[in-house]
Each structure stands twice: as structure tokens, then as C-alpha cells.
Amino acid sequence: MCVQAGKATLAGMKWIMCGALGLAFSAGALAADAYPSKPITLVVPFSAGGPTDVVSRALGQAMSKDLGQSVVVENKLGAGGTVAAAFVARAQPDGYTILIHHNGMATAPALYKKLSYSPMKDFEYIGQVADVPMTLLGRKDLPPANAAELIKYVSQNKEKVSLANAGLGAVSQLCGLLFEEAVKVKMTSIPYQGTGPALTALLGGQVDLLCDQTTSTLPHINANRVKLYGVTTPSRIKALPNAPTLQEGGLKGFSMKVWHGIYAPKGTPPEVTARLTRALQQALKDPAVAKRLDDLGAEVVPVDKQTPEGLRTWLKAESDKWQPLLKTMKVEAD
């Protein structure tokens, strides 16, 4: 509130200052109302056609309907998603450059000694998107017929068994580490430059095992090109109703899913992040998005997770879960 000063000259200055402040607040409100006035770039840390990219494109298209501007997907690869995350952390905090990322936001601090950003401090949170189950696959001619037989097989063959992944920090690597921890066996880890090459190696019989998202593996499972040993969720999934869980196969307590969240650079105005959250929530109500995710075996998260606080809380919980485990297992970049 503006209060008139006792002296005329001071009073005049006060009224001028108050008027200027009022104009500034009005300009800020108008800027927020005008957002977005140009296309928004959604940065994806992984390659085009990969699991996160597929989810991102479906989501971006639906968000653009609510925002009234295009949401353009930009794939920025490198270092397990840290190149993309660092890029967005340094971007102008105006809501026109945002990030979608998966579990890697929680694991990066343990995997990379010289991380140039803090997942918990250098971003504003928009909300969670979807959860994606994972599947443990074997090459078509791998001898074990089910998870119980596989556990026995890897225990007998140990490092002779090759376990592919999509590179350091990829969810396929994390799932493989959990599997090794669960069976108490160290296998031969073979990293590839992405999910596509890892799957190609499995399909070609060049590696024995791969654990990856249903968004990538479902077509090969349904075409009977690989051997499915189980899903990584506690319960069976709608996309593969006849597939047992790894817990059913004898790995009690084994549970892992891929989760996705959307982030903006630190300092992005609250009005802008709120607008993005609203667009995210509207997109996740879109029947076309729901069907696309359902076809991929993914599940839209509950509404209370489609919020800044929902994502913040989940990221903290996942960081507390994974970082000690990775440090104990001494898994990190060279």
C-alpha cells in the first residue's frame, strides 16, 4: 500500500515510486498471462525413438493443445542424461526450455564425481508423468525356461553370462545391478550406446540378458523374438497379463519401475511453473495420451504426483534409495 509522506516533495516521490511499482507488478502479471507466447522446447536426454523419447512426444503434443503453442522435442544425448540436465539447468528460467528425465535424476550424483548441477537445488519441479514397468529378457535360445531356472543358471555360470545395458546411468543398467544384487552373482556387464543397440545385440544372440522398459521390449516379446523371464513390478501388468513377476519367480521384494518427471530451470517464475503443471495435468487426461501410454505398458501417475511437490518428494525418496546402493556397489563413471 502507498502512504503519503508529510512533506510535499517526499509525497510526490512516494506517489511516483508507488506508481512505478504498480506498473511493474502489472507488467509481471501480463507477462505471466501471456505465457507462452512462443514454442517451448522439451529437452529429452536420450535418442529419438527410445523409450523416454516416445513418452515425450506423446506428452508434448498433448501439452501443446492446452498451452496454445508447440512443444518441440529436442534430443540432447550424452553421459547418461547429464548433458541434457546440465543444459536445462543453465537455460534462461523463462519456461521456454524444460526437461523430461527419468530415474537418472536420482542416480546421477552417485554415478558422476563432477556433476555440474544438483537435481535437488538447480531445478523447479513441474510434476511426474508416467511409470513404466521393466522386463527381464533373455536371448531366444537361452537354456532356462523361467525365472527360477534362470536364477540357478546364472549362479552356476556367473561371469560367463553376459548382461547388456544401454550405458552408464541407463535404467537398464540399474535394473541389471538390482538383478545381480538379488541373485548375489556378478555377471559380465556389456554397455551399449542406447537401448536400440542393446536390444539388437540381444535379438542377434550376441548377449544373454537385458532388463529394459516395456516401451521398448513389448513388440519383441509379443513377436516371440526373445525369452521373457518376468516383469519387475510387484504385480502383473495389464500389457502382459500372463507374464509372471520376478517376485513370483523367486526374487522376493524385487521391484523396479521407470518414472518420468518434468523440470524447469531454477528461478522460473511460479506463475509459469504453475501453467506448465496445469498443461501437464490436462495432457495426462487426454484419451489419446492415455491410450498411447497404455499401448506401451506405461501407466499415468495419480494426480497428486502430477504436481511440483509430488515430483520433489519422489525425487528425494529415489535419491535416498539409489545413491547409497550405487556407492556401496562402487558404480561410477571413469
From TrEMBL:
SUPFAM superfamilies: Periplasmic binding protein-like II. It holds the Pfam family TctC. The keyword Signal applies. Residues 1-31 form the signal peptide. Keywords: Receptor, Signal. InterPro entries: BUG (IPR005064), Bug_dom1 (IPR042100). This is Probable extra-cytoplasmic solute receptor. It comes from Cupriavidus necator (strain ATCC 17699 / DSM 428 / KCTC 22496 / NCIMB 10442 / H16 / Stanier 337). Belongs to the UPF0065 (bug) family.
